[in-house]
Design goal:
The complex is a heterodimer of chains A (115) and B (115). Chain A is an all-beta fold and 115 residues long. In chain A, 0% of the residues lie in helices and 52% in strands. Chain B is an all-beta fold and 115 residues long. Chain B is globular, with a radius of gyration of 14 Å. The chains are: A mainly beta (115), B mainly beta (115).
Chain lengths: 115, 115
């Protein structure tokens, strides 16, 4: 069974630009979560989508947004990029996160560099 | 306040030896889940083991076991018979209702297995 697929794997942008990252979850998974990983802040939760609805949001500015499609694929967008947005963006899927059991399956991430 | 604390930034262990990676957590929820993930240099987060707060027995998955001490709020990962391929970053994480079921990660421990 195919794992979580994230595209693109690597990208370079300049300040002020915007970027869209894509995530295809494991077949049958309806929950998609996004995490940002930086050396300074570690892994931080961005948001979670379930059945096309944002169910939970982390403490990030409004420049960070996302959406989920009817096939559970998800995209996240970052507008007006800043240098501090350089990070590894990880997508994770699961059947449902509103339980305390079951792991999240992560993709390999999209590594964004902002110049 | 930090929800997950991993006090060991880096650890060394010799091949075939056992190693314990420390994790303490902070929550007021009665029901929560604790996870350990491995992140090799490729970036993907690999699920290792899960412990539910109501589980009375320590979780085990192959060479991985979780030493769960609820009263002390600790969830240490024990890797037995270390292998060179175990060299990676290891993250402890917690999921609880108070955080909307998002994973709260610790800062991680870098494990290096030497021949």
């Amino acid at each position: 069974k195919a794992g979580v697929t994230q595209t693109p794997r690597y990208l370079i942008k300049t300040r002020g630009q915007q970027v869209t990252l894509s995530c295809s979850p494991i077949s049958g998974h309806r929950s998609v979560s996004w995490y940002q990983q930086t050396p300074g802040q570690g892994l931080q939760f961005l948001f979670e989508y379930f059945s096309e609805t944002q169910r939970n949001k982390g403490n990030f500015p409004g420049r960070f947004s996302g959406r989920q499609f009817s096939n559970s694929r998800s995209e996240m967008n970052v507008s007006t990029l800043e240098l501090g947005d350089s990070a590894l963006y990880l997508c994770a899927s699961s059947f449902d996160t509103v339980t305390n059991t079951g792991e999240l399956f992560f993709g390999e991430g999209s590594r964004l560099t902002v110049l | 306040a930090q929800k997950i604390t991993q006090t060991q930034p880096g650890m060394f262990v010799q091949e075939k030896e056992a190693v314990t990676l420390d994790c303490t957590y902070d929550t007021s929820d009665q029901s929560y889940g604790l996870f350990w993930y491995k992140q090799p240099s490729s970036g993907e987060m690999i699920f290792l083991i899960y412990q539910g707060s109501y589980d009375e027995q320590n979780a085990t998955e192959g060479r991985y076991s979780l030493n769960f001490q609820k009263a002390r709020k600790s969830a240490n990962l024990v890797i037995s018979a270390s292998q060179l391929g175990d060299s990676a970053m290891y993250f402890c994480a917690m999921r609880e209702r108070n955080s909307g079921y998002a994973l709260n990660f610790g800062k991680g421990t870098s494990l290096l297995v030497t021949p």
